[in-house]
Amino acid sequence: MIENLSGGVMTEFQEKLRQQHEDSMHRELQALLATANKAEAEISRKDFDGFKKLFHRFLQVKGPAVDWAKISRPPEDSIRPYERIRTEGLPDNISASLNKLAVVKLNGGLGTSMGCKGPKSLISVRSENTFLDLTVQQIEHLNKTFNADVPLVLMNSFNTDEDTKKILQKYKHHRVKIHTFNQSRYPRINKDSLLPIAKDMATGGEVGEAWYPPGHGDIYASFANCGLLDKLLAEGKEYVFVSNIDNLGATVDLFILHHLMSQPAERRCEFIMEVTDKTRADVKGGTLIQYEDHLRLLEIAQVPKAHVDEFKSVTKFKIFNTNNLWISLPAIKRLQEENAMDLEIIVNPKTLDGGLNVIQLETAVGAAIKSFNNAMGVNVPRSRFLPVKTSSDLLLVMSNLYSMDAGSLTMSKRREFPSTPHVKLGGSFTKVQEFLSRFENIPDMLELDHLTVSGDVTFGKNVSLKGTVIIIANHGDRIDIPAGAMLENKIVSGNLRILDH
């Protein structure tokens, strides 16, 4: 009996504690708003409303977000092979279908992990073209080819908005309308006190660490709040194709578009998530599961520790989310109005430069799949997932493995097998500037399977790499691969200097 009593008392105590945390948070947020100017306060008030909801749910939920025993594999028909979608053919009137589409690119990230300042989308990836250039070229090509009007929408964050807007001037005369909106700005909270670490609303310099963009799940609320959702609906748009701007494989697919447009009204599919087969490199990617009669996205952050290895297994969970998503605009409007979007919270712990432990509460755009009607996955070819997260990825997309046409990259016809080589470049190649300085030009990689480079290594002009190549310069040594060298199934180590005289 005592156990129950203490349990009850404890819950009451926890409830009081929760209430205290929430009251203190609301007081702090009010105090922060008081430091903002009028225009800023209006925007921040909307942001804080979203944050309060998230914080409230964070205090309610304890323990892992999923009950592992309730997880099952999605039913056969809920994830369709892309080949089946292709057999349905193309729309009779492609331009009419395209005119009901808008393309949204998630553009909130900085290039810091690749040693670059400013938005990641402004890094040059191919023949002096940035991620943003390639995106604009792709959509302009669609609009010209099919005489259509597909707008490009960029979801920026407070980190990327200013720099992105400056660059947009250069696309004035391109045949693509570009809209931007900002995702929310949420306060990082002290892990111990659960209060914001910000003292006022400023974001520059040192105090920039006090704020964060809350993950791409924020797209739904921000899109609705800024008025763009209503604007696009008024223009007759029915779907958005959402993807990460650094995924060079995420182009508008006319077969998937046709599948969406051709469903009868009562069975309209409101959400398609493109998934692809897992390889060893993708073990951390979110996967689709069946949970309480709904398709649901399961992220590694939600998996109980005891099951992480099982989650990573390629046999049990065979596919992962590419974050290429096709979403119904009227459905977003309905779910926002009903406040029915239930996105699992991802608690992301960080340690700031000064050693302070903070947490940021985030959500993922794909997690909303369970709220939409007739949602499904489409298992697409790997070519639709070509993210550039590291300089190793950059080497692949800059090389002759890919050919470029109207902003789209496709695997070269001259490569005999369609798989991408496995490339691992060491720490000396992490930053883009350093990476570029180590190659006189990009090696021929058409016949490469595996490349590992570690230490102080440079490549001369017209080097050719085939099979498995491993180049290791030990500490203090340097290896210069000479111009015109052809390395096939070779291990190079030790010291090799080539000096101009």
Automatic annotation (TrEMBL):
InterPro entries: Nucleotide-diphossugar_trans (IPR029044), UDPGP_fam (IPR002618), UDPGP_trans (IPR016267). It holds the Pfam family UDPGP. UTP binds at K120, Q183, G215, D246, K389. Its EC number is 2.7.7.9. GO terms for molecular function: UTP:glucose-1-phosphate uridylyltransferase activity. It catalyses: alpha-D-glucose 1-phosphate + UTP + H(+) = UDP-alpha-D-glucose + diphosphate. SUPFAM superfamilies: Nucleotide-diphospho-sugar transferases (SSF53448). One of its GO terms (biological process) is glycogen biosynthetic process. Keywords: Nucleotidyltransferase, Transferase. Substrate binds at H216. Pathway: Glycan biosynthesis; glycogen biosynthesis. It comes from the Eukaryota. Homooctamer. Belongs to the UDPGP type 1 family. UTP--glucose-1-phosphate uridylyltransferase catalyzing the conversion of glucose-1-phosphate into UDP-glucose, a crucial precursor for the production of glycogen. This is UTP--glucose-1-phosphate uridylyltransferase. It comes from Gasterosteus aculeatus aculeatus (three-spined stickleback).
